[in-house]
Amino acid sequence: MNTQELIHQQVTGHPVVLYMKGTPQFPQCGFSATAVKVLQACGVTDFHAVNVLADEALREGVKQYASWPTFPQLYVRGQLVGGADIMREMYQSGELQRLLAGA
Length: 103
Hints:
By secondary structure, the chain is α+β, with helices and mostly antiparallel strands. The protein has a single domain (3-101), classed as 3-Layer(aba) Sandwich (Glutaredoxin). The chain is built from 5 helices and 4 strands; from the N terminus they run H-E-H-E-H-E-E-H-H. It has a 4-stranded mixed β-sheet with strand order 2-1-3-4, with helices on both faces. Helix 2 (30-41) links the parallel strand 1 (16-20) and strand 2 (48-51). The chain is globular, with a radius of gyration of 13 Å. The termini are far apart.
C-alpha cells in the first residue's frame, strides 16, 4: 500500500482524524495542542490521531493528499476541515460542534 492509499484509508476509516505534530497527550507544537483542546472542548475524546513527526513519507504525503501544507489537519468523515485556526473559528461559531455531532 502506498502512502496516499494509507492516508485515504485512515481518513475514510475513522470518523475523526487529526494529523498532528506529536500525540494528543504530548503535542509537539502549539497549533497541534490547540487542535486537541478544541476537539476536547467539542466533547470529542475518541479520535484517530496520527503523529506526522514519526514518519517523513507520511508527513509529506498528507501535505499532498489535500494540498494543505501545514499541520495540524483535521478530517471529519473523510473531508478536510482545516488547521488549528479554522478549527478555533468554527468552534467559536458553533459550526465545528454541529459538524462533529454526527461523527
